Amino acid sequence: MHEYSIACEIFEQVMETAKAHGALEVRHIILEMGRLAHTNPEQISFCFKAIAEGSIAENAEFIVEKIPPSMECECGYTGTVDETQIGKNDELLSELLEYIAAFECPVCGKNARIIGGRELIVKSIEIETEVEK
């Protein structure tokens, strides 16, 4: 299960950042996840919570924001993939996007290539540095 190893890396990043800023508690973590990352957000969240038990991140809210795939065309257009070209089923969409090399450019109609959508980025970490009175 690669979600566990990803959650471990996220936990390490969160803890390093929290300690560097004198955190007493980690409150929120926002992870940006590309739709082509081939990871399950619920499993990452579950694994993170298990790893964080007993730490200052134990009660942190773990939020995953999905990022749509992006494309670029030789005409100069860059933007997100129009997922309606494929359909609405998330699992099918992810599998299809991984294997399809190009989509139609909405500007010129030529094939555009996929350039983004595999990201896994810790977007923000909210911490508490002082005990509230």
From TrEMBL:
Keyword Metal-binding part of the UniProt annotation: yes
Gene Ontology molecular function: any one: nickel cation binding
Gene Ontology biological-process annotations: protein maturation
Pfam families listed in its UniProt record: HypA
Superkingdom, taxonomy of origin: Archaea
Listed InterPro entries: Hydgase_Ni_incorp_HypA/HybF_CS, HypA/HybF
Chain residues that bind Zn(2+): 73, 75, 105, 108
Keywords: Metal-binding, Nickel, Zinc
Chain sites annotated for binding Ni(2+): 2
NCBIfam families membership: PRK00762.1 (NF001976)
Family according to the record: Belongs to the HypA/HybF family.
Function: Involved in the maturation of [NiFe] hydrogenases. Required for nickel insertion into the metal center of the hydrogenase.
PANTHER family per the UniProt record, alphabetical: HYDROGENASE MATURATION FACTOR HYPA
Protein name per UniProt: Hydrogenase maturation factor HypA
